[in-house]
From TrEMBL:
Domain L-type lectin-like, first and last residues per copy: 1-72
Pfam family, any one: Lectin_leg-like
Protein name in the entry: LMA2L protein
Compartments it resides in: Membrane
Length: 146
């Protein structure tokens, strides 16, 4: 969407009251369009904001012309202040990421019994087959041709 345009593109990132919004102006008309709006974002305090225009293989050329950072003053209740102070890792409420499935339910007693039973049957079968093969090998090694 932003490749090879003859005008500048702009991006606004806002984080206010646990809501992260990203607005874009890629048409050069100074009209903001919603890109993403995620409620329930909890970010820790004391971190830094960083940007990079490196694309890896230098297949694209992106220039970051300027950054404007503002700290918004938002009135908070003491409960919100305490809750936000306790955040150590970035978290998003009610967000399921790919690869983060719910933990598996424990096996029922019947399933566990069947797994153990058939494992023991397979082990006994393997031992019997091993003994038969060993005995046949012993018989073959005793035969001598004079």
């Amino acid at each position: 969407m932003v490749r090879n345009l003859n005008h500048d593109t702009f991006l606004v990132i806002r984080y206010v009251k646990r809501r992260l919004t990203v607005l874009v102006d890629i048409d050069g008309k100074h009209e903001w369009r919603d890109c993403i709006d995620v409620p329930g974002v909890r970010l820790p305090r004391g971190y830094y904001f960083g940007t990079s225009s490196v694309t890896g293989d230098l297949s694209d050329n992106h220039d970051i012309i300027s950054l404007k950072l503002y700290q918004l003053t938002v009135e908070r209740t003491p409960e919100e202040e305490k809750r936000d102070r306790e955040v150590f890792l970035p978290v998003v409420d009610n967000l399921k990421l790919p690869g983060m499935e719910a933990p598996l339910e424990p096996m029922s007693g019947l399933a566990l019994f069947l797994i153990v039973f058939f494992s023991l049957v397979a082990l006994v079968f393997a031992i019997v087959i091993g003994i038969i093969v060993y005995n046949k090998w012993q018989e073959q090694s005793r035969k001598h041709f004079y």
